[in-house]
Specification:
Elements lengths: L6 E6 L7 H14 L3 E5 L2 H7 L2 E4 L26 H13 L4 E6 L1 H13 L4 E5 L15 H21 L2 E7 L6 H9 L4 E3 L7 H13 L5 E6 L8 H11 L4 E6 L11 H19 L5 E6 L2 E6 H6 L7 H9 L2
Helix pairs in contact: 1-9, 2-3, 5-6, 6-11
This protein binds 6-O-phosphono-beta-D-fructofuranose (F6P).
6-O-phosphono-beta-D-fructofuranose (F6P) binds next to loops.
């Protein structure tokens, strides 16, 4: 029979994402609701290894639902990648009296959670929190919607100056190996071209498209480039390439960078975090373990970590077609 859970621990790990605080709040308050002790470990897996934690109650998380970042801090722990590090983490959980964990983070967090759950008999539930939206088993990760809105707002501003100076801007957005942010913000901001890792459009096609834009009377253009794009050139090299080949264009580059990870979470991300984390705690109390929670077709769903990490979660290529039509 599964051991009765009296204490649940929570971490935020990997790249932070807006809505992580709403997620922590939901874990802590659901524990309080069910009269379960809750402890928050600082700096993700590293805090678990070091036993760096705080006992949290319903009031510890007041007024954080609207705050970006994570009050528990985040990190990418090298030590947790080792068997010894994970053993230390398991020992420190035992010492803190922690029976189960909620792990909020992205693919690195889930990979760590999966290995940890195979090696140690401590139930864990993963909650997808990353702006990249690159986790399967959920249509949306916590933070993605906020990041999209941040990016669209930034591109709108870039558009103003691009248009005043008749310039072409390459705007690099985050997304590591996934084009979700680039594709959706590109359509939302009316970009002329969108370059994503999932679809190598090639340099010739980019030049053709820019020539077409000029011919059609456009005086300014925005090209959104995902940081993991496979075109073979980084955003600055791309800008140089276009300047060499299309000297009529006055080209500038903006790398949006880490500002995409900050800011007040949208209502969507707060609600998503709340729904997923109530479920995460309830799953643990129901004796479930080693799963991730997600939102599929607006229903909270669960799957194993393997599916979350390797399952199908493809970008909507129809959006590329829509972008092509609308950027005429
Ligand atoms: O949060 C995910 C992500 O934003 C990726 O898109 C990016 O490659 C990475 O984090 C960069 O994070 P850091 O600078 O913290 O290593």
């Amino acid at each position: 029979m599964a051991k009765k859970i009296k204490t649940i621990g929570v971490i935020t790990s990997g790249g932070d994402a807006p809505g992580m605080n709403a997620a922590i709040r939901a874990v802590v308050r659901t524990c309080a609701y069910y009269h379960i002790r809750c402890v928050g470990f600082y700096r993700g897996y590293q805090g678990m290894i070091e036993g760096d934690y705080i006992t949290m109650n319903a009031r510890s998380v007041q007024n954080i639902i609207s705050r970006g970042g994570t009050i528990l801090k985040s990190a990418r722990s090298q030590e947790f990648r080792t068997k010894e590090g994970r053993q230390r983490a398991a020992d420190s959980l035992k010492e803190a009296g922690v029976d189960a964990m909620v792990l909020i983070g992205g693919d690195g967090t889930f990979t760590g959670g999966q290995i940890f759950s195979e090696e140690h008999d401590i139930p864990v539930i993963g909650v997808p929190g990353t702006i990249d939206n690159d986790i399967a088993g959920t249509n949306f990760t916590i933070g993605y919607d906020t990041a999209l809105n941040t990016v669209v707002t930034a591109i709108d501003k870039i558009r103003d100056t691009a248009s005043s100076h008749n310039r072409l801007f390459f705007v690099e957005v985050m997304g590591r190996d996934a084009g979700f942010i680039a594709l959706n913000s590109g359509v939302g901001a009316g970009a002329e071209e969108i370059l994503i890792p999932e679809e190598d459009l090639g340099l010739d096609r980019l030049l053709e498209s820019l020539k077409r834009s000029k011919r059609s009377g456009k005086s300014s253009s925005i090209v959104v480039v995902s940081e993991g794009d496979k075109i073979g050139k980084n955003v600055y090299e791309l800008a140089d390439y276009v300047t060499e080949n299309l000297p009529d264009y006055d080209v500038r580059v903006t790398v949006l960078g880490h500002m995409q990870r900050g800011g007040t979470p949208t209502c969507f991300d707060r609600t998503l975090a709340s729904r997923l984390c109530v479920k995460a705690v309830e799953l643990l109390l129901d004796g479930k373990k080693n799963l991730m929670v997600g939102l599929l077709n607006n229903e909270v769903a669960t799957c194993d970590f393997e599916t979350g990490l390797k399952g199908e979660h493809t970008i909507n290529k129809e959006l590329l077609r829509i972008s092509d039509i609308l950027s005429i």
